[in-house]
Specification:
Blueprint: H1 3-26, H2 28-38, E1 42-51, E2 54-64, E3 67-73, E4 80-81, E5 87-88, E6 90-95, H3 96-104, H4 106-111, H5 113-120, E7 124-128
Parallel strand pairs: 1-6
Antiparallel strand pairs: 1-2, 2-3, 4-5, 6-7
Helix pairs in contact: 1-2, 1-3
């Protein structure tokens, strides 16, 4: 497993899991709404990591409701099932240095997610893949 794979598939996924658990404890009503929207559906979200603007790695996070159940390296295969029957395919593009910075500031991301996320939004691009 490469250093980038470890960064995304182990450290980043673990941090996101802790963040979701903390958010659920702090905001149980909002989490209940998210769970209702996502249900127990299997969804996937993609992450494309770049270094100096060049693609360094593609990843797919597998979700069951709001829980990350796994991650795949080398593949970008997002698929979110909307409650109204639509399927959307979102993925984010983020520089490796931004991921590393997020991990260094994990406590802030977990304790104050909304204000912390605002700081990173200019560094993240959200794209959608076309239907296959």
């Amino acid at each position: 497993m490469s250093e980038l794979d470890q960064l995304v598939m182990e450290r980043f996924v673990a941090m996101k899991t802790r963040a979701v658990e903390h958010f659920a404890r702090q905001h149980p009503h909002l989490m209940a709404v998210l769970q209702k929207l996502l249900g127990n559906q299997e969804n996937r979200v993609g992450i494309r990591v770049t270094e100096n603007g060049q693609v360094a790695g593609d990843y797919t996070l597998h979700l069951q409701g709001t829980t990350i159940t796994g991650a795949a390296s080398g593949v970008l295969s997002p698929e979110l099932h909307h409650p109204f029957g639509l399927v959307i395919r979102p993925y984010v593009i983020v520089e490796r240095r931004v991921l590393e910075q997020m991990l260094q500031e994990e406590d802030e991301l977990i304790s104050h997610p909304l204000s912390a996320i605002k700081k990173y939004l200019p560094e993240v691009t959200v794209r959608f893949m076309r239907a296959a």
